[in-house]
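Why should sequence recovery work at all? Because a backbone constrains its sequence more than one might expect. Tight turns favour small or flexible residues, buried strands favour hydrophobic ones, and helices have their own preferences. The token representation captures these environments compactly. In the example below, the structure is given first.
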């Protein structure tokens, strides 16, 4: 009986802890090199994740470590399944969620993909199809996961591929939360064995007799129509035979799904919508005009492009329309070269994701690494490194707290957007493709190739810049809309005020009829500049075009349909207004809480706004909430029928604005009009780091500690800056004091007169202080500054580069060349200042 009681207590404990797994906390990619993992190390690392504020891990088996080939655990072998189950069980005990890829590396493929099921490419030779294997193998495959990439258009390839997992998971109870599919990277794949038959069945003519149209470079209307039909068929096959079978199988097995649809030749909105958690990707560094924000000069925009919020909105739009609570992102990939990424570079990228509708961040990422591995441990080939040997590991909990604070609010609220912008993908399909396989790949890296140059992209960018709130909608999704009053109603019970059709040439007849249905029910529809000119579809085009033009005439007669070259005027007539937040140079997302209150997340990713009154779209009172410290305050005034709030938001800062139904008193507005610079001499004591602690030093003027003698130019670690100063005479009259640390490389832990007052880790490096802490004379300011690990790695790669011992791509730099830090110049380190007290 006693043993049964103990067992029940343990089971109850596991159940309770399993309920504490948080999606508000950030999760992380967790690469298993060769799956050379041990249970005790798994437990240690999961505990480390928990301590730092990580909510979950995503297991990705990849290539192995040189010299440890015999210790590698083949993917889906009994031993692999055992450590996977241990990870899930241990994760539940610790409150850590676990996801996994339905495969190894990327994209889907492996040893059970025969040539008949492998990806195929077709080129036209003398008017006939020349079909061959792409011969692409799984990229970064783990032992046991090697093999051909799956044919994404094949009728049975996905179901056959998944039989391997059916066998492996049979009888296993401890399974991950989610299955994951990485971005579409089946390069050159543009055909399948029954493509010609499927094309004829769907498009009603023979593609084999019209193949030359696919490569026709002349402005031939017939060729454009055939290219549209070709892409339409690929898109349908990809959705029906690849995305939906995988999500259906996952659901039947009890998994939720995370899906990176980008890179596909299909309509991203439909593909993202197939998953429980649509996932976008933030790769590289955005060019934010935030003073002090660094961009790695070696990062190649030409090679990789930059993150773009419009591309991110494809994932969030699919989630919003279909009532999916979570929208995730692969976050922080290649923000800078290895050992050079700071927390201050990460936060603005996450803020951009939040404003784009993302609310479930996955860091990219963390490598499984044995505790005994020589520094820096086992590392993934692509930066950023979020693991325990990262130079910002000590301060990472602060970023994690910030992310959790924001995501808790973003996940528990609903979208509150006014406009649905139709995505006219047929206009894109009509053009010659710039990607491999002569097809359009809608990737996140080069949005200029498929999004920004289209009227759709230009319109969306203008809406974003002007402060309109909107989501995207596809042809397929229009049929799921209903009407409530004169508003659009989605299956998830989300409302929109109008549909906006960008200037376009082609439109399917089905889409036009859906627009006619909605307008007849009272929905306002605005066409930018012109109505579409041509119906898509090559078969019977002449007769279909006549019918299309009749439908257009009928649609135009509806009083709710407008063609406009002045969108602001037309939107205003439909009671759709822009938010002044954007006009001030701020970036935002507007949402609704469960009890109906308005919620804004606002971030300053530019350099035009500091403080001022901002009008909001509503007559409610608003509370400003600081997600870094949790401080809330009211600062509002009425301005006609709209509310104004007083915002103090420097470049790099962010906040929530939450409406309240209670009419409280406006908070006191504090203006910082005075400044006092704290000047040297500064005492510098090196506390801990690599390779050796340099000798103590003094600086009259703050500059990088790399100018000091001894080993300072190679030192990576923490140094204590100390200074004694007298407070300015008028400081005691101030209720609010801010310590502005100027340029910090990279984080600063601050004490004033022996009391810890906070850690500055993001731009602007500022800490609010209690004026009562100051003495008239002999105040002691102590600042512990931790720099990047780059300077030590300069020395390490000269003396002991043996840490780079990984298979496959091993370690490369940000240009994908062999990694070598020994040629780097020293990275500025320490407290660069100026250090100021800013007060009323």
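From this structural description, the recovered sequence reads:
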């Amino acid at each position: 009986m006693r043993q049964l009681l103990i067992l029940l207590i343990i089971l109850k404990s596991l159940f309770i802890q399993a309920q504490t797994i948080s999606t508000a906390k950030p999760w992380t990619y967790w690469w298993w090199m060769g799956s050379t993992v041990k249970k005790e190390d798994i437990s240690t690392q999961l505990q480390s994740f928990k301590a730092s504020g990580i909510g979950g891990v995503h297991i990705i088996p990849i290539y192995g470590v040189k010299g440890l080939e015999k210790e590698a655990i083949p993917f889906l072998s009994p031993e692999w399944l055992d450590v996977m189950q241990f990870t899930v069980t241990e994760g539940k005990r610790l409150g850590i969620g676990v996801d996994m890829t339905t495969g190894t590396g990327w994209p889907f493929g492996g040893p059970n993909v025969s040539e008949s099921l492998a990806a195929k490419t077709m080129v036209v030779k003398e008017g006939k199809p020349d079909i061959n294997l792409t011969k692409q193998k799984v990229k970064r495959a783990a032992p046991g996961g090697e093999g051909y990439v799956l044919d994404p258009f094949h009728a049975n390839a996905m179901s056959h591929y998944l039989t391997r997992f059916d066998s492996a998971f049979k009888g296993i109870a401890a399974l991950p939360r989610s299955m994951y599919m990485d971005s579409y990277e089946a390069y050159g794949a543009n055909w399948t064995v029954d493509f010609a038959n499927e094309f004829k069945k769907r498009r009603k003519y023979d593609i084999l007799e019209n193949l030359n149209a696919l490569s026709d470079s002349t402005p031939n209307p017939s060729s454009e129509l055939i290219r549209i039909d070709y892409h339409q068929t690929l898109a349908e096959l990809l959705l029906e035979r690849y995305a939906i079978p995988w999500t259906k199988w996952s659901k039947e097995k009890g998994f939720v799904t995370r899906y990176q649809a980008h890179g596909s030749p299909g309509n991203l909105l439909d593909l993202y919508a197939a998953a429980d958690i649509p996932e976008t990707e933030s790769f590289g560094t955005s060019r934010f005009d935030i003073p002090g924000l660094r961009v790695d000069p070696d990062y190649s925009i030409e090679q990789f492009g930059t993150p773009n919020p419009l591309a991110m909105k494809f994932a969030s739009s699919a989630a919003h329309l279909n009532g999916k609570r979570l929208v995730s992102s692969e976050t922080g990939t290649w923000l800078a070269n290895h050992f050079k990424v700071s927390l201050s570079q990460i936060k603005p990228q996450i803020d951009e994701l939040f404003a784009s509708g993302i609310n479930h961040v996955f860091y990219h990422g963390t490598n499984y690494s044995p505790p005994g591995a020589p520094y820096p441990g086992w590392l993934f080939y692509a930066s950023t490194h979020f693991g325990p040997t990262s130079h910002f590991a000590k301060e990472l909990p602060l970023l994690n707290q910030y992310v959790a604070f924001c995501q808790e609010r973003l996940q528990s609220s609903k979208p509150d957007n006014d406009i649905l912008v139709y995505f006219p993908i047929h206009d894109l399909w009509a053009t010659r493709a710039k990607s491999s396989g002569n097809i359009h790949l809608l990737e996140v890296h080069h949005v200029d190739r498929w999004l920004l140059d289209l009227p759709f992209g230009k319109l969306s960018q203008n809406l974003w810049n002007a402060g309109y709130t909107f989501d995207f909608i596809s042809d397929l999704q229009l049929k799921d809309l209903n009407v409530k009053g004169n508003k659009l109603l989605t299956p998830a019970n989300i409302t929109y005020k109008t549909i906006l059709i960008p200037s376009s040439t082609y439109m399917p007849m089905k889409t036009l009829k859906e627009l006619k249905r909605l307008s007849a029910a009272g929905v306002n529809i605005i066409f930018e500049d012109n109505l579409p000119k041509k119906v898509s579809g090559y078969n019977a085009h002449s007769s279909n075009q006549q019918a299309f033009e009749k439908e257009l005439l009928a649609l135009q007669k509806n009083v709710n349909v407008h063609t406009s070259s002045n969108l602001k005027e037309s939107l205003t007539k439909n009671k759709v207004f822009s938010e002044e937040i954007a006009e001030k140079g701020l970036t935002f997302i507007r949402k609704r809480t469960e009890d109906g209150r308005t919620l804004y997340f606002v971030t300053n990713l530019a350099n035009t706004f500091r403080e001022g009154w901002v009008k909001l779209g509503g007559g409610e009172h608003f509370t400003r909430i600081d997600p870094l410290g949790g401080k809330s305050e009211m600062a509002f005034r009425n301005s006609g029928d709209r509310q104004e709030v007083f915002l103090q938001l420097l470049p790099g800062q962010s906040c929530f604005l939450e409406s309240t139904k209670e009419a409280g008193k406006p908070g006191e507005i504090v203006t910082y009009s005075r400044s006092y610079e704290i000047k040297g001499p500064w005492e510098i004591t090196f506390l801990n780091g690599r390779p050796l602690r340099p000798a103590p030093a003094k600086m009259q003027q703050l500059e990088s500690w790399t100018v000091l003698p001894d080993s300072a130019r190679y030192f990576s670690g923490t140094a204590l800056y100390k200074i004694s100063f007298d407070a300015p005479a008028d400081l005691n009259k101030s209720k609010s004091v801010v310590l502005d640390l100027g340029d910090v490389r990279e984080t600063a832990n601050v004490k004033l007169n022996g009391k810890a007052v906070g850690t500055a880790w993001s731009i602007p490096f500022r800490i609010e202080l209690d004026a009562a802490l100051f003495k008239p004379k002999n105040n002691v300011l102590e600042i512990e500054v931790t720099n990047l690990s780059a300077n030590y790695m300069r020395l390490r790669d000269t003396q002991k580069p043996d840490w780079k011992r990984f298979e496959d791509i091993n370690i490369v730099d940000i240009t994908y060349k062999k990694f070598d830090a020994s040629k780097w110049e020293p990275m500025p380190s320490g407290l660069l200042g100026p250090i100021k007290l800013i007060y009323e």
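A few observations help interpret the result. Confidence is low (pLDDT under 50) at residues 1-17.
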